[in-house]
Prior knowledge:
Blueprint: E1 6-17, H1 20-25, H2 29-48, E2 53-58, E3 61-66, H3 76-102, E4 113-128, E5 133-138, H4 140-155, E6 159-162, H5 163-169, E7 173-181, E8 190-198, H6 204-221, H7 225-238, H8 243-257
Parallel strand pairs: 4-6
Antiparallel strand pairs: 1-3, 1-4, 2-3, 4-5, 6-8, 7-8
Helix pairs in contact: 2-3, 6-7, 7-8
Amino acid sequence: LSVDGGRQTMTILFCDMKGFTSISEGLTPTCLVNLLNRYFTLISEAVHENAGVIDKFIGDAVMAYWGKPFSKESDQARLAISAVLAMKEKIAQLQVELPELLGTRMNLPQIVVRSGIATGDVVVGNLGSEKTKNFTVIGDTVNLASRLEGVNKIYDTTILITEDTLGMVANDFEIREADTIVVPGKTEAKKIFEVLAHKGELSADLAELLNHYAEGLAAYRAMNWQKARDAFNACLQINPADGPSMALLQRINDYERQPPAENWDGA
C-alpha cells in the first residue's frame, strides 16, 4: 500500500461494553485488567475470524474496519455484521468464565456488547507524528459508526447499522428498521436498522413482533399516534423488554403533549 492517503468505501465498527463504568468501579485493578484482556481477546477473535482489522482500543471500546485490501468490497458489510454476531457467542463464553477471572461467584456483572456499524466513503492512510504513525481510516462514516454505538442506549439495542450497510448485505440477516435519527453534529436524517440474527434464525414470536413494529413505525411517521401506540403495545405483549417499542411509545407521549412541526419528516 502507498503511504499516501486514499479514498475508498469501507465498513466501520465501534463496539463497547454496556455499563462498563459501573462494572469497573466494583472490581480490583487486577480483576479489571484480567476482565478487559479476556474481553478484548474474544472481541478481536470475532473480528479477525471475519477478515476484519482491529484499528484501536479506546478504554473498553474497540474500533475495527473492513475493506480493501483486507476483504472484498462486496463482502465487507456481511463480514462486519457476522463478526458482531460472533461476538455475542463469545461474550456468552466470557460470562461463563467470569467466576474464575474475577475470583468470585457473587454479584457477577452481566457482560453485554453494544455495536454500531456504518458503511461509506473514508480516507485511508498512515496518520500520526513523525515518530509514531497508524494505518487508519477517518471521515464521516467513522464518526457515524461511533455515534450509532452510543445510540443503542436510547433504544436498548445491541447492534445498529446504517442504510448503506443494509444495502450491501441483501438477505443475509434478520433486520428491522428501528427509526430515523439525526446524529449530533449532523443535519441529515438517517434511517437506522437493528440486526437481530442470521437469516432464518428468527423465532415465530419475534417475526410477529417485527410485523407489529413495522406497522407501528409507519403509523408513527404518519402521526397516527393511537394506531402506532396499539402496534407498539402489541410488540410489548410479545416481548415486554423490547427497547425500540418502549422508546417510541415514550416519544408518542411526548408528541401528544407537544406535536411536531407540520413538515416533520419522522426524524
